[in-house]
Amino acid sequence: KDAFGREAELAIVQAPRALPRLVQMPPELSGYPYGFVLLSSFMQGFVHELFPQIDVHGCYQFRVTRNSDLFVSEDEITDLREALQGELSTRHFGDAVRLEIAHDTSPALARRLLEEFGLTEADCYRVQGPVNLVRLLQVPDLVDRPVLKYPPHTPAAVKAISASANVFDAIRQGDILLHHPYESFTPVLELLQQAARDPDVVAIKQTVYRTGNE
């Protein structure tokens, strides 16, 4: 029973977004110059303190991936930025498409989660270790060991564009394929800048797919 005397069979604790998912420990505690602990490990280790006076029989990680497609009709909108902002605010409520759970999660709990999110067994993935390894991508930025890192990459200039007076002239000679990040992104910016200044340009249309954080 919980603190209010109610029967408590299942509780879901969402990790606060304000807290880092990867916690760097002091060397005197970790025994290493650079030691890290996942926030989820702290939560599992101290789960009894999250639920005082309750017998906790298990604690398992899970992660739900939701459909984040944006539905924007360019024929019906007048302000693209405003329309996208409206769609972004609802992305967290999209239909679930995948469930990742810890490998030792009980079959009964796995079925319960699948039912709650409207998924099937084919959508369930049992993970050996941390559920979301993307959190480890920040480790290189936290470890000051230049010898372990690749030198900064300088994108190559695009010869087909450098030899032309402007991007439009280069495109008239034929299609151009840019391979990022190996080739410079500057031509894309130049194309937008030149198109914005060209009185003959009536519209600028682009398809952006899975852009990075930058």
TrEMBL record:
Keyword Hydrolase: no
Gene Ontology CC: one annotated term: polyphosphate kinase complex
Gene Ontology biological process terms from the UniProt entry: polyphosphate biosynthetic process
UniProt xrefs under InterPro entries: PP_kinase (IPR003414), PP_kinase_C_1 (IPR041108), PP_kinase_middle (IPR024953), PP_kinase_middle_dom_sf (IPR036830)
GO MF entry, a single one: polyphosphate kinase activity
Protein name in the entry: Polyphosphate kinase
Domain Polyphosphate kinase C-terminal: 166-213
Domain Polyphosphate kinase middle: 3-138
Record's keyword terms, sorted: Kinase, Transferase
Domain of life: Bacteria
PANTHER family linked: POLYPHOSPHATE KINASE
Gene that produces this protein: ppk
Keyword tRNA-binding: no
Gene3D superfamilies attached to this UniProt entry: Endonuclease Chain A, Polyphosphate kinase middle domain
